[in-house]
Design a protein that fits this description.
Elements: E1 6-7, H1 16-32, E2 38-39, H2 45-50, E3 54-58, H3 61-67, E4 72-79, E5 88-89, E6 91-96, E7 111-114, H4 120-130, E8 142-145, H5 149-157, E9 164-167, H6 168-177, E10 185-190, E11 194-195, E12 198-201, H7 207-222, H8 227-232, E13 235-239, H9 247-258
């Protein structure tokens, strides 16, 4: 049996009820436009993003430019989280309270923790910030990978690492929903702003369906009846974006490499 096209919003699923509300509203709006969709909660994101029947998902700018050359861009949500500006967001540099008087340069030889090496917010942005400070391509003594921003924060709290770059939207959602996960931690710096997380669809999605996707997202982010739902998810708008908008993600990688830093 042919399955329905898949829809998922996996990147900021911190308050699951709020994410469920968002995916439910979107499937209803798409149904009204004659576009059926089945909500998925994928564990393995890369195959999900590359699926031929992907109707809508959210990825990170780094996988988009490095690993997903064929997907189509739908657009991007704007966020009301502190640290965001229009269609751009940043990462906070986070350490334990005892180190809150330090600057990034003081973390030479300390231990970094990241979610994954294909993350812009946790890896690419941190590499960009430390690259001018590195010696012989190295700055940190060790870098561990914990699979998610929440796990990176847990490693900081447990004194298994000293610093992490944390997506400012993730930080704001945790502060609202799970403040205990930020206990004993402080923001000691920030990365520059960069292009917000892209919403994508399969290369197979027709131009007509893409237009309906964008129409549904515009309605979701502009109708008063969704105001509380959007506030829960820290979403303040939607805009259509082009691939060129994400060029700076690769620029950060290239600029770090030019300074001799290709890995953290």
């Amino acid at each position: 049996m042919h399955r329905m096209p898949s829809l998922s919003l996996p990147m900021y699923d911190i308050n699951h009820q709020a994410t469920l509300g968002l995916t439910s509203a979107l499937t209803t709006l798409l149904q009204q436009r004659g576009v059926p969709a089945e909500v998925e909660w994928p564990q393995d994101l890369l195959p999900h993003w590359r699926a031929d029947d992907l109707l809508l998902s959210q990825t990170c700018g780094y996988p988009l430019v490095a690993l997903l050359p064929d997907v189509q861009l739908v657009g991007s949500f704007q966020s009301s989280a502190q640290g965001c500006d229009g269609l751009r967001y940043r990462s906070w540099l986070v350490a334990r309270k005892e180190d809150d008087h330090l600057m990034i340069s003081d973390f030479r030889g300390r231990r970094a923790v990241c979610n994954s090496d294909d993350s812009h917010s946790g890896y690419n942005s941190l590499r960009y910030v430390i690259a001018p400070l590195a010696q012989d391509g190295k700055f940190f003594s060790t870098t561990r990978f914990n699979g998610s921003h929440r796990q990176s924060l847990a490693a900081l709290r447990a004194n298994e690492a000293d610093i992490a770059a944390i997506d400012c939207i993730t930080w704001a959602l945790l502060r609202r929903n799970f403040p205990q996960e930020l206990a004993g931690l402080e923001i000691i710096g920030e990365t520059p702003l960069c292009a917000a997380l892209p919403l994508i669809t399969s290369a197979n999605t027709s131009a007509e369906t893409l237009a309906k996707l964008r129409s549904a997202l515009q309605e979701l982010t502009s109708e008063k009846r969704y105001k509380d739902l959007l506030a829960e998810n820290l979403i303040s708008g939607f805009s259509v974006t082009e691939r060129a908008f994400y060029d700076e993600v690769l620029t950060w990688e290239k600029q770090a490499a030019a300074l001799g830093v290709t890995a953290l």
